[in-house]
Design brief:
The chain has 378 residues and is mostly beta strands. Helix content is 6%, strand content 43%. It has 2 domains: 84 residues, Immunoglobulin-like (Sandwich); 260 residues, Sandwich (Jelly Rolls). The protein is built from 3 helices and 28 strands. It has a 17-stranded mixed sheet that branches. Strands 4, 5, 7, 8 and 9 form a 5-stranded antiparallel sheet that branches.
Length: 378
């Protein structure tokens, strides 16, 4: 009878082995703590295991010459602990120590970061304040003509505006052209003078210049604005002036510069090694409101991306993803974020230069700003 009982008990235990968590077993006080295989959770690594009940458990990472504590937990009454730390940048060995005894080591290798979220503009940039921007505007210029639902062409005959060297803003195939996925804005010196019509008085000139803008079509307050540009090839010769900039839809705080202007990327052919960001407003100090340390020596030979991140307190200018200038403004006669708390529109300009960048005889008769795409996020 005793033999039969022992046989029955052995059979029962054998049948129960599939229900017993042998890996989680802990031998008791004085035994080594047990460390399970770590688990990756997004940008963290979670370490679990068992130690003596209520024991302090320290997670340690192996350094060049010693172990370093990187986290700790107190085991529960059942001896369970859980410690989470950031994912390492390179493979690293970990262990836990409790009551003076160390567990086996576990090796952790970094996992690839999750891909950035995407939307209509492509990969969504990360906000400095946290989270990601969302696309609000995109033009890849992949048609055969400028999309007039997104852009208007500046015309002196309507606005009365003029460019350097008495340049006349006109809308034709010489000044504005789209082909092969690129927008070409060109300033031209014609062989013969023509009458530039203006509501404020017409004049004769041989100079055509070009500007397109999203005025009354797309405007935005705050956010990120970015374009991929190649500036004109005539670097080192005075006379060509290009710009990617923002201008207020309404002059809510008065005429320029009272209502503000943001020059995201301004290029002068006489000084071609740098591209200049600027923030213009009433009372600005030009030595502080413009960035003079944004080198771009290949601006005329290669495409680069130029961006501004506009917040209520600061403008951050990034060239090829690198922060090269930031500016917080203190306007005269108003309080920040004024005047940069109203909707602005996007502008792209190619004109002839003025003052120290006035056109010389060495400058060819044509100079072109080439635009690959323009994007905006909020």
């Amino acid at each position: 009878m005793r033999a039969l009982c022992m046989l029955a008990l052995a059979t029962l235990l054998a049948g129960m082995t599939g229900l017993v968590d042998t890996t989680a077993a802990y031998a008791g006080d004085g035994a080594r703590p047990r460390l399970e295989r770590p688990a990756h959770r997004q940008s963290a690594v979670v370490f679990k295991g068992r130690a003596a009940p209520r024991a302090v458990v320290r997670l340690q990472a192996r350094g060049p010459s010693s172990w370093r504590t990187v986290g700790k937990d107190r085991a529960s009454r059942r001896g369970v602990f859980r410690i989470a730390v950031g994912s390492p940048d390179s493979p690293r060995a970990y262990r836990v120590v409790a009551q003076g005894r160390a567990s086996q080591t576990r090796r952790v290798v970094p996992v690839a970061e999750a891909p950035a979220p995407r939307d209509a503009c492509g990969e969504r940039p990360v906000r400095a304040e946290g989270g990601h921007y969302a696309c609000t505007f995109r033009d890849d210029f992949d048609g055969t003509a400028l999309d007039r639902s997104r852009w208007m062409v500046q015309e002196t005959s309507f606005s009365g505006m003029l460019g350097g060297s008495m340049g006349c803003y006109v809308d034709n195939e010489r000044t504005v052209r789209v082909d092969s996925g690129l927008l070409h804005l060109t300033s031209t010196i014609l062989p013969e003078p023509f009458l530039c019509r203006s509501p404020y008085g017409s004049w004769m000139t041989d100079s055509e210049v070009s500007t397109v803008a999203t005025r009354s079509r797309f405007t935005q307050t705050y956010g990120r604005f970015e374009a991929r540009l190649r500036f004109p090839a005539e670097s080192g010769i005075p006379g060509s002036h290009s710009a990617f900039w923002l201008y207020p839809q309404e002059h809510a705080y008065g005429r320029w510069p009272g209502s503000g202007e943001v020059d995201i990327a301004e290029w002068f052919s006489a000084r071609p090694a740098n591209v200049y960001p600027s923030v213009h407003y009433a009372g600005e100090n030009v030595l502080q409101s413009s960035g003079y340390n944004c080198p771009m020596p290949t601006a005329s030979t290669q495409f680069h991306t130029y961006a501004v991140e506009w917040t209520p307190s600061v403008m951050r200018f990034l060239y090829d993803g690198r922060l090269c200038f930031s500016h917080s403004w203190t306007p005269t006669g108003m309080s920040a974020p004024q005047p940069f708390d109203k909707p602005f529109y996007v502008v792209l300009t190619q004109v002839w230069g003025a003052a120290w960048n006035t056109r010389t005889d060495a400058m060819p008769a044509r100079s072109t700003l080439t635009v690959d795409w323009v994007k905006a996020w909020h």
